[in-house]
Amino acid sequence: MQSHKKTRIGYSIEEHVNKDLIYLNQDINSWEEVIEFLCVNVADYYHIEMDFKDSVFERESRGSTCYGNLVAIPHAMKSFYKKTILSFVTLSKPVQWKDRPVQLVCLLNIGTDSENDIESVFSFLTELINDPERVKSLLASGSINEFSDWLIYGNLR
Fold first, then answer.
1. I need a surface site. Which of 52, 56, 108, 122 has the fewest CB within 10 A?
2. What gap in Å lies between CA 98 and CA 155, rounded to an integer?
3. Which secondary-structure segment (H or E) carries 110?
4. Does the predicted model carry a pTM greater than 0.85?
């Protein structure tokens, strides 16, 4: 079967997405709880120091990481791990993220060994933010595999 991965000059977001760090239809009631939830899970999984969470909150205090279309992409002030990490959560209902509703959140860490990822990851995330149908499909995903297929391939294989 031929792969239909969206790639940009050989780049695929798939290498940065860990299915163990995708959470669907979570009952979380505030943007602060979303950040806490994702940071704790990522820090536990990768054994990252909890300064990571503090740095994400500090970055958020300097300006909202909500970009519209129900999407927020919180991230730390600096990298806390050698590889680029994308962790996702969909919420059972939107939360108010500063001045906008958010239902899909991607916690981002650009790896210390992965500075070349910055342009490709941000390009991918910009495409996602600007694709309301894809966001809607991600929010409606009934399984981690379905979410991952929509995220990585842009459709169901």
1. 122
2. 31
3. none
4. yes
- Other residues' Cβ atoms within 10 Å of the Cβ of residue 28: 19
Does residue 75 fall inside a structural domain? yes
Task: State how far the alpha carbon of 122 is from the alpha carbons of 6, 15, 27, 141, 152, in Å.
Answer: 14, 15, 27, 23, 14
Cβ atoms of 147 and 24 within 8 Å: the answer is yes
H helices of 47-131, where?
51-62, 117-129
- Distance between CA 114 and CA 140 in Å, rounded? 31
Q: What is the pLDDT of residues 73-110, one digit of tens each?
A: 999 988 888 888 999 999 999 999 999 999 999 999 98
Domain with 132, as residue range(s), is 16-152
- CATH number of the CATH domain containing 132: 3.40.930.10
DSSP state of 75: B
